[in-house]
Amino acid sequence: MDQPSQRNVVIRSPEKEYDALGAEETIRKFCAFIRSVIAHYEENARQQEAAEARQMDLQHCIEMTPELTETEEHQLYGKLTEALRTRRTCKDENMVLKPLYEAVVDKNLLNRLAQVQGQIGVVKKTIAGKSYACRTDVLDDFRIEEE
Question: How many whole angstroms separate alpha carbon 76 and alpha carbon 87?
Fold first, then answer.
């Protein structure tokens, strides 16, 4: 039967990366993507609202100004066209982004993913710092450094 070790033998975890799937980096990139979606969606909403206000102003100007010159009408039409196209672009982009935006903005997903990322970091540090102190002399014949 093995006897208690006379040496103070400690076996340490090898230094290697245990995040084989790259979870920390993937979460970081995904969070950046989600922040980008939120910012883009909200900026589109602001631009759409501003374009709609310009559109309404231009339409009222056309409607309520009886004596516009041909040049003024052409300028108003150009500005109206620009406002309508801006509105359409923003609206269409947000139609694509809306399901994702709604899924993440109200569910506190970014905060939860930050917690998960932190938990992964803690586990990796724990694994890196693992050691085992031998209780018996079974390893005394091996060249394991004492601590």
Answer: 16
Number of domains making up the chain = 1
pLDDT of residue 5: 54
Distance CA(60)–CA(70), nearest Å, equals 17
Q: What is the pTM of this model?
A: 0.68
Q: Which domain holds residue 86?
A: 21-107
Domain membership of residue 119 (yes or no) is no
33 within domain boundaries:
yes
Question: Is 140 inside a domain boundary?
Answer: no
Q: Is 139 inside any structural domain?
A: no
